What does this fold into?
Amino acid sequence: MKILPNYQYPSIPPEQQTELISVIIPAYNIAPYLERGVASVLHQTYRNLEVILVDDGSTDESGQICDRLAAKDDRVIVIHKKNGGPAEARNAGMAIAKGSFIGFVDGDDWIDTDMYERMFGAMLAQQADMAICRYRRVYKDRVEDASVDRLIIWEGQEALQYYVEEREEYDIQNAAWNKLYRRQILEGLQFPHGKWYEDIMFSGKALGNAGRCVYLDSACYNYIIDREGSIMNTKINPRTFTDQIPAYRERSSFLKELGRQDLADIHDYFVYKRLLLFYNQVKKSKEPDKKKYLKEITDIIYKNRNDYDRIYQCRVANPNEKRKMELFLRSPKLYWCVMCINEAVILPIKTKRKGCLFVFGF
It folds into this structure.
């Protein structure tokens, strides 16, 4: 890893903007946001763009907005299709994309005017296969931006490693939209048809294919966190078990196929940590399928208990997480009682008296 502080992103004069960048924007019932999102792409300082709008069977005015935008700018191409979800929409866009570089934007978000010039300029300067940028988290009442003025260069599988390790200092994430890809590293890749959490495998494989990545540690993308109706705001649901958890299993297998058992163990450590959080979330909920979800989570955890000694020895593991899992394996009811006590009593005391040691240490 190489860090370039106070990095000056090279500008690309119009006459040197010869490479075509295809930007794919799925649109499903986001009429109030769509025009802003597309306009932020069309107004980019990097002008040589192909903007592919995929109307995914919208029942509001999103489709008409797409057509209206295409009539105003000949860089815009519109696909109208039956609703199949964001994965199929993105695949439809990739199928007709002509650019040597490909990016994705969610139509309800928007990007800074120089996002693609900065990302592409950094890729060219560093001969990278992928650029990743930090993003702003846009809430109804505030905006969070942890930007740092630097560029980071990752070689080989370093970017994949930091992605799997879920390093908080880097906004890599599963998302497809804060990245710009050299077309070659996406050859043969598609988003899983009809699935939610479609970015989990796509991003992992793309990072695995990239020989060098650049990370712009300053926000260029504006991501709406709390829009009503967003899939990302959907809590635990049947798709958690049919789509999300199977995608995690597939990513673990992919890492093992790369010969990175170490990364597979780290990935699985975070998966089981997440499963315990899911269990807590469901226990607190009034979900009608509560008993079913609790049983499914418990079954998954117990099924893989023979792997835990290895997984909880991975280099990022927190001993407290191992203790939680051991407690759960002893008794899910006992685990839940301890979690309730921890939340109601121990955590408030810890907040007031930092540094004190407690029996459970959670």
